[in-house]
Amino acid sequence: MDVLGYLRLVRRHWWIVLVTVMIALGAAALVTVRTAPRYEASVTFFVTTPSQGVTDAYQGSLFLQQRVKSYGDLLTSDRLAQSVVAEAPLGLTADQVQRRITTSTEAGTVLLKATVTDTDQTRALKTTETLSAKFVELVQKVETPPDGKAPPIKLEVVSGPRVTSSPVSPQPVRNLVIGGLLGLLLGAGLAVLRGLADVRMRDAAALQRVTGSPLLGEIPFESGAKAAPLIVGEAANSPRAEAVRKLRTNLRFVDVHEPARVIAVTSALQGEGKTTMACNTAIALAEAGWRVLLIDADLRRPKVGDYLGLDGGVGLTDVLVGDVQVGDVVQRWGDKSLLVLPSGATPPNPSELLGSKAMADLLVALRESADIVIIDTAPLLAVTDGVVVAVQADGALLVTQQGRTSRSQVAAAAHALHSVSVRLLGCVLNMAKVAKADAYQYEAYKVVVPAAPSVPTDRAGVARRGEPAAVGDHTQELTRLSR
């Protein structure tokens, strides 16, 4: 995955980053509030040597720098800490004094700085004053030769002792900035891990990669689609309707040398929008002037009749068992060249019925009666009905809902089709999240033409059931289409 891919994961899980940053800022603020203020008192020493001690300047400089390093260790020694405690009543032990002392030197110089950090400002200053006096006294004692001559090292206080007027810690601004940055990094890491661990189908590129088929459509999510699933009336001018029209175009030109006339619409799982996709695709094709026949072959849970407002009590199953002729049960929908064959009664053996010779013969006859036959089938992973129907069609269209189906489930559905040599025409990503820029472009470019809806619809957006046409009308329609 490239850098842009990781950035997309962070953007997708932005709430993880936000929560982590807020927690980190809260922890930094809590630590800042509960930390006692600390003050620093410091003193700076200058180490030098009399001119008669060392004649060579370079050797003298090296000698002093080595001495400065040794004095730094001497400042934090047990002996000096005990001398400080014995000199002044500080309320501290020698070990506590020793832990409060830090030393520092500047490279290439003979300056030595001692710093005492304490929660008590007065005690920090008093400790530093005592430490300075005892340290100078200790150095003179150590450096004085046994014969009583002048010591080769001279130690002078050039700065301090002085104490800071404000606490050096805690520093609220610094703590909050560090906490925020750590929270941001941790949140971004968690967001990436969450994204990598998320096995659900999240984008069109992953769908194409898993199925090994072209992306024919990316249908955007619309909050009102559940109440009004069909692209008729006001919904005909929505971005969702335009996406279905793009699917219609891609579907007709997916293979110009071998166009698919009988298309099975299926999905990996139930509830991914395959039935709605089949209905809307049929409507879009009929709007373009194609003679379309929509068949509800999901015999276990048929929904086409409910969506289109048609009576599905008699239909495909009755035709397959030989009780009625197909021309007697096919119904015209709206004022378009769209015919619908409902599912009919629920049979006890859907798979056997759909895989029968009667079904194969029916599809051969219907292929000659319409330009395009759209078949709504059962989900592939639930039952075998969808595969049985897809084998008899010219190709299959796999519908996947974004963020619901896992990549393994989509791969299993595609494998179920490929294993029986079904021609997978392409895939459709349903309920996809579309960028605001794309939605704005459509809203700015679309032209809304006032027009009456194609069919009357109720408040739920489902086509109202009109007066049933005579059986002979449907028979004549199929006869006319077959000519």
Automatic annotation (TrEMBL):
CDD domains: BY-kinase. The chain crosses the membrane at residues 12-33. It is a multi-pass membrane protein. It catalyses: L-tyrosyl-[protein] + ATP = O-phospho-L-tyrosyl-[protein] + ADP + H(+). Its main location: membrane. It is found in: Cell inner membrane. The keyword Electron transport does not apply. Residues 261-404 form the AAA domain. The keyword Cell membrane applies. Residues 458-483 are annotated as: Disordered. Belongs to the etk/wzc family. Belongs to the CpsD/CapB family. This is non-specific protein-tyrosine kinase.
